[in-house]
Amino acid sequence: MESPRKTEETRPSRLRIGVDVGGTFTDLVAVMQDGRSEVFKVPSSPADPSAGVIEAVKAAAIGLGLGVPELLARCDAFVHGSTIATNTVLERKGARVGMLTTAGFRDSIAIRRGLRTNPWDHRTPFAEPLVPRHLRLGVRGRLDVEGQEIEALEEADIEAALATFDGYGVEAIAVCFMNAYVDPRHEQAAERAIRSLGCELPVSLSSALAPIMGEYERGSTTVIDAHIRARVVSYLKALEERLRALGLSQDILIVQSNGGAVSVDRVARAPVGICLSGPAAGVGAMRYFGKMCGTDDLITMEIGGTSCDVTMMSGGRAQLVDLYEIGGFHVAQPAVEIHTVGAGGGTIARVDDAGLLICGPQGAGADPGPAAYGRGGKDPTTTDALVILGRMRPGPIGDGAIEIDEERARAAVAEKVARPLGVSEEEAAAGMIRLLEQNLLHAVEEISVKRGVDPARYTLVAAGGAGPMHGAAVGRMLGCTRVYVPRHAGVFCALGMLDSDLRLDFMQVTDVELGDTGVAGLDAALAEMGKDAADEIAGEGYEADAVTYEAELDLTYKGQLRALRVPFSRGVDAASDIRSRFEAEHQRTYGHIKPITPIRIVGLRLIATIPAIRLAAPRPPAADGPARAAGSRRVYVDRTAGWLDVPVYDGAQLRPGHRMDGPLVIQEATTTLFAGRDDVVSVDPSGNYLIEIG
Predict the structure, then answer these.
(1) What tens digit of pLDDT does each residue of 193-243 get?
(2) Euclidean distance between the first and final Cα of the chain, in Å?
(3) CA nearest 223: which of 256, 175, 189?
(4) All structural domains of the chain with their residue ranges
(5) Pairwise CA distance, residues 673 & 392, whole Å
(6) Helix 215-246 / helix 49-63 crossing angle, nearest 10 deg
(7) CB atoms closer than 10 angstroms to residue 558
(8) Among 75, 212, 235, 573, which one is least packed by beta carbons within 10 Å?
């Protein structure tokens, strides 16, 4: 079926497709060579996520006036982000894992570090390990801290363990031996023994996945990899096969937790690397929109239905971490630093036993959703409050898929917030929004102020379906002068995937004191890592001259536990250059330095990158007159102004050059923008919105 909107002249000749599978919707963005983009949303299929992707492709084909085979034949890149790895861990629906550890250390992943996320919470237990104790089995054999063999590996123990695993129906094996990060030979020998004994189960080695000091972190990462491997790989392989059968000739690229993209075959070797696949695509989106608003210093606040993901980019580089937590388990993989809070359009408000208003972190989800959706939801949510305040209009949204009912919203807020607090429905709704926006403010401060960074120097990007509604208010509280709102804010990550570079990370543990002798030895180590990188790049099907390499060092003061990462230029940097760089980062992070304390190099990193072909910025036709409001309605603006008649603009009618004074509401296909008093909203040359905070 062809869309009547598209003629032969307007159908795209070549395009790129980004698909983001979320819990409620699967988003597809098709970007043409001239930068124009089309957005398509279909319901996700939790039981079979690939079905949602295929339905999104079919919807795009219809919308672009093409058949599915023709659409895929014109596709130059198909980039995909998915929460399947995350959900598999959170739901504990992966493979049954058996774990081989050094004899005497099988309880390390249960003991953990003994540290709690909240030191004042002594009652909440740690998450139960993904491997029960009876499937964590010790193997005799030991290497010392320098990689010297103390005790030979006992293969009879491996054989006995396999018999136990077989009896319990184990589906994957994780191997984590002491000091394997220094020398992987015992782990590699264990894998060979497993294969020689006829076992064909997937095997995950800690030395291959996370060659770092810290047995618990290595073990946790390896277990997660084994747990998710079968489900992730089978899904991605099946999706790729289905798309190829429909006409796609390109390899699918999958977004990793580090914000880069790789092939399905590369993911299959280490699925744990895509645990943050979906939200990490925001890095590409930040880079893309940073070009449009003319800055490399951005903070993104992506607000969806139940949560808000906050990320920061300084000087064009996203902040990365080497260790993060998911579902109560630690993952030692390079990842974009994302701070997530339970604050979104479906966040539930309640009054506690002390009479205090609480907002979140619980959410109403897609089913039943906010009370205003009329799907059986009874709890008051952010969306219900926005409807009461006039910032969201009653009536159909999402092509009529949902009908917003103001009376249901009022009933929920009245029963569970207004009456318990002894205030009006409007006052209760305003309090809910103020509290939610305070939570959003604290989320931004968590990755900026607590890192010694002043967020007022940054441009705040309000993304996600709910981001444009709260962006101006949060930007004002942060002291930002500008808030940037993408026109397609609701598909922010799907668009960002198309600007994601291919990226591979390599790491080697070292332990030498910083000095000219130690620095000289790094070049040889990096050369060896470069050979490994070149082999992997060739395996991805890329030419060696397309690759750019960056080296980084993990440094600590002697006796310090946590390392800081600084860039390193091979053959250029002397020890004094590295020390200056480290101390500047230490001062920024911790507020002090130790000028006479020796510095140790504890890790060496090599990042291989193949830059993506950058998306062209769209250039829609400029405005030929002033912006005209489509109407107006009564809206609660703030505590000072109260209720005002506010102009409401149809985003589809706004063009570059239009400039509007707040307060105002702009209604887009996938989001709604609200700007307050004294704010000025302009449409930039790319068709996106820039809010100048008054």
Answers:
(1) 999 999 999 999 999 999 998 899 999 999 999 999 999 999 999 999 999
(2) 48
(3) 175
(4) 15-89+233-278, 93-226, 502-610, 631-685
(5) 10
(6) 40
(7) 11
(8) 573
CA 336 – CA 258 distance, rounded (Å): 5
pLDDT at 43 over 80: no
- The Cα-based distances of 278 to 283, 462, 691 in angstroms read 11, 17, 27
DSSP 612: P
CATH class for the region spanning 93-226? alpha beta
Q: Among 341, 320, 314, which residue's Cα sits nearest to residue 332?
A: 320
Name the architecture of domain 15-89+233-278.
Answer: 2-Layer Sandwich (3.30)
- Given a cut of 80, whether residue 7 has pLDDT beyond it is no
**Pairing between β-strand 136-139 and β-strand 97-102 as defined by DSSP bridges:** parallel
| 8 Å CB contact between 447 and 318 | no
Q: Where does the pLDDT of residue 365 fall: very low under 50, low under 70, confident under 90, or very high at 90 and above?
A: confident
The answer as to CATH 1.10.4160 being correct for domain 502-610 is: no
DSSP reduced 3-state for 302: strand
- If you average pLDDT over every residue of the chain, what do you get? 90
Which tokens in the block code for residue 441? 């403010």
**CB-facing half-sphere around the CA of 134: CA atoms within 13 A:** 8
- pLDDT for 157: 97
CA distances from 509 to 333, 355, 598 (A): 14, 53, 18
Strand partners, 21: 26, 82
What is the maximal distance between C-alpha atoms in the chain?
Answer: 82
Interval 445-489: pLDDT, tens: 999 998 888 999 999 999 988 999 999 999 999 999 999 999 989
Q: Which two tokens stand for residue 671?
A: 């989001």
Fill in the amino acid letter for 203: V
Tokens of 417: 């917030």
Pairing of strands 15-21, 25-32: antiparallel
- Among 19-23, 652-656, 666-670, the range scoring the smallest mean pLDDT is 19-23
Task: Identify the sign of the CA torsion 622, 625, 627, 630.
Answer: negative
Distances in whole angstroms, Cα of residue 453 to Cα of each of 298, 318, 530: 12, 14, 34
**Do 502-610 and 93-226 fall under one CATH topology?**
no
Residue 1 confidence (pLDDT) above 70: no
